[in-house]
Request: fold
Amino acid sequence: QELRPKSLDIKQEELGDMVEKEMASTSEAIEDAVRRIEEMMSKARNESSGVKLEVNERILNSCTDLMKAIRLLVLTSTNLQKEIVESGRGAATTQEFYAKNSRWTEGLISASKAVGWGATQLVESADRVVLHMGKYEELIVCSHEIAASTAQLVAASKVKAEKNSKNLGRLQECSRNVNEMAANVVASTKSGQEQIEEKDTMDFSGMSLIKLKKEEMETQVKVLELEKRLEGERVRLGELRKQHYALAGAYDPEEDGEAKPAPAPRRGILKKPPLAQKP
Reply:
């Protein structure tokens, strides 16, 4: 008992209750996340319009799909967990089974907590993004975290499950679905970010006539500067190529013992190679 890692400050006989509480807590967190996303959707429709509304709806819809996938994952994981306990405890009670397999039980609890925490963080990040107070990168990071915690939950469940278990197959399918939905959140977030940034850059509706004229002149100056810089870089590239060809043609391999690089062949002046002489 002294050597056993104390990852949880609870007694072994309490592990079984802890598992059920954590799975129930995770399910409750998912339900709350779905409800909060629906509220955000309604609020976004009332307070935003145009491109911002389109972006917010796309992001929130992808988050809703992810929450539904996680909810199914947790439900399937709970069913598999019950199957594992029933098939492995024998004459022992459920509490005794969890106590006997305490390391596995603690891993299951940790994985369940990670899934619930990831879902909560995703919703909070989505709320900040919709309110224009957060960063799009937060949503992307949360999506990756959910995918990682899902893999942890599947791995913890797979350790004790039978290879031919139908619930295990369902859980693995749910895991793939969660990963797919998380990837959709990342994709919708990135596209939405690009769309919003492009709109903000090209939105001139609030400018006065004088401000517009000033912006126009500054943009013309930038265009001329870039064109001049492009022309200069092209000249520089041409000179670099000339020097490269000159060095390649005048390079003497005997100076350092290295092989002489073959110059670039020119079309139209290639000579026919001589025929091989008979011995």
